[in-house]
Design goal:
Blueprint lengths: L1 E3 L5 E4 L5 E9 L14 H12 L4 E7 L2 H9 L4 E6 L13 E2 L4 E10 L16 E5 L7 H6 L4 E5 L2 H9 L5 E5 H10 L6 E3 L5 E10 L3 H14 L3 H11 L1
Parallel strand pairs: 3-4, 8-9, 8-10
Antiparallel strand pairs: 1-2, 2-3, 5-12, 6-12, 7-10, 7-11, 7-12
Helix pairs in contact: 1-7
């Protein structure tokens, strides 16, 4: 049985007869380890974990989508939870637009190249004259200026995994992707003997979770839950297979 409630959330009947608010968890991270296949991955594990932690108060439901669709939902003021985000990536450096949690994980943008022709990143100029494997629609900070100027050639693919395979075959000189994704994919695809990861990343950042909308109670629950995750053995066991 589903009933509409204020703030755009849904109430879903639980076994105890109470109602759990159905909370959308919207993510544009549609690649491993965040989404590994339909209905699986670190994002789904996070949603299940938070649902259990709420003790029946909330049911967190993952909705994977392109960034533009997520931006539209946020612009419409829909009450949602967004994981793996960084304030700067959402124009909220002062953290006043959304309700932000503490850090979920530390991440970086790894610079990966063929092991036969390794690249050590030392700023955008260190990629001059090389072919960068990008993902269509993605931007790469200060590297983009050299691409626009023709100093770096950009060859786009449709996914991070495709670029790693192209680098392993020396079809591109370098690719840039989230370190969490690089480590997961290199291990799962057995590419460690064919790829080199630069000791210096392209950039470093923290991944957090934010709540959009006026639901202070939900934001408080999220904040408390994330604060306790670092010392929670259950979360460590759940997340470790994705973050090794």
């Amino acid at each position: 049985m589903i009933r509409p409630v204020l703030a755009g959330l849904l109430l879903v009947s639980t076994a105890s007869g109470a109602y759990a608010a159905d909370v959308p968890v919207m993510t544009y991270h549609e690649f491993p380890p965040f989404v590994t296949e339909q209905g699986k991955g670190l994002t789904y594990a996070l949603a299940d974990y938070m649902t259990k932690k709420s003790g029946g108060k909330y049911t967190f439901v993952v909705e994977a989508m392109p960034r533009k669709r997520l931006d539209t939902a946020l612009a419409e003021g829909k009450p949602v939870v967004v994981p793996w985000a960084t304030p700067a990536f959402f124009g909220d450096q002062e953290q006043t637009r959304y309700k932000w949690s503490a850090t979920l994980i530390q991440d970086a943008n790894a610079v990966v190249s063929p092991k036969a022709a390794p690249v050590e990143y030392a700023g955008p100029d260190s990629l001059s004259g090389k072919t960068l494997g990008g993902v269509a629609g993605h931007r790469y900070g200060p590297v983009d200026a050299l691409v626009d100027g023709g100093t770096i050639k950009r060859d786009d693919a449709n996914s991070e995994l495709t670029n790693l395979k192209k680098a392993a075959q020396a079809r591109i000189d370098v690719t840039i992707l989230a370190d969490t994704a690089a480590r997961y994919l290199i291990k799962s695809e057995n590419l460690a003997d064919k790829l080199h990861v630069s000791a210096t990343p392209h950039s470093k950042y923290e991944r957090r979770l934010f709540v959009a909308g006026p639901d202070a109670e939900l934001a408080g629950f999220i904040a408390r839950t994330v604060e306790g995750m670092a010392g929670d053995a259950d979360w460590k066991a759940i997340s470790e297979p994705y973050l090794k």
